[in-house]
Design a protein that fits this description.
Elements (H helix, E strand, L loop, with lengths): L10 E2 L1 H13 L6 E9 L11 E5 L2 E8 L3 E6 L18 E4 L3 H4 L6 E8 L12 E7 L2 E7 L4 E5 L7 E4 L15 E2 L1
Antiparallel strand pairs: 1-5, 2-3, 2-6, 3-4, 4-5, 7-8, 7-11, 8-9, 9-10, 10-12
């Protein structure tokens, strides 16, 4: 992908992801989201959803990236979002880190009051069954990074869809969750 510092470690299944990352995710609670970063194409501004979503909480960076139909990598403080993305000379579009997203901007400056790992379990089987969602709960809504079937998808303040919820231990708090707009990016 040409992203400096990005060395994904993809896991499958909520238990493996919980064991590897739950306690570290819990340490984010109480921190403010100070910035976010997404990869966009310079030529048209479109988000390249195959690349990680990077959230910085008071200098502690979490890097979330879904792949294939069921894989999730969560990285910690490894990606340099100020570095040029390389290796795309063959492609007609040029990827670049963007530190602004209209949908995420609402959360910048807010304190994180909860984190959850959610597993998508629909009533009837579908391709997304068993995928893991990373949910960040703020006082004014929640942000979910979900598997968009081989890419990341961002959901903001959508109704709870997961029937099996695994809450990150200890410091995870329950905030008011609005079933507001169901906006997606």
């Amino acid at each position: 992908m040409g992203i400096f510092g990005f060395e994904p470690s993809f896991l499958t299944g909520i238990e493996a992801i919980r064991q590897a990352h739950a306690s570290r995710l819990a340490t984010l609670v109480g921190r403010r989201l100070t910035r976010c970063a997404l990869v966009r194409f310079i030529e048209n501004g479109v988000w390249f959803a195959d690349c990680p979503v990077v959230l910085d909480f008071d200098g502690f960076q979490v890097e979330v990236c879904h792949s294939k139909l069921d894989e999730l990598s969560i990285g910690w403080n490894t990606i340099d979002t100020t570095a040029t993305i390389t290796g795309w000379e063959w492609f007609e579009l040029t990827p670049q880190w963007s530190h602004y997203d209209e949908g995420l901007e609402h959360f910048v400056g807010q304190e994180l009051c909860g984190v959850a790992l959610l597993e998508w379990r629909p009533v009837e089987h579908d391709l997304a069954a068993g995928t893991v969602i990373v949910e960040f709960v703020f006082t004014e809504g929640c942000l979910r990074i979900v598997n968009g079937l081989d890419e990341n998808r961002i959901e903001i303040a959508t109704p709870a869809r997961a029937q099996h919820v695994t809450q990150v231990p200890d410091r995870a708090l329950d905030c008011q969750r609005g079933d507001q707009h169901g906006d997606q990016h």
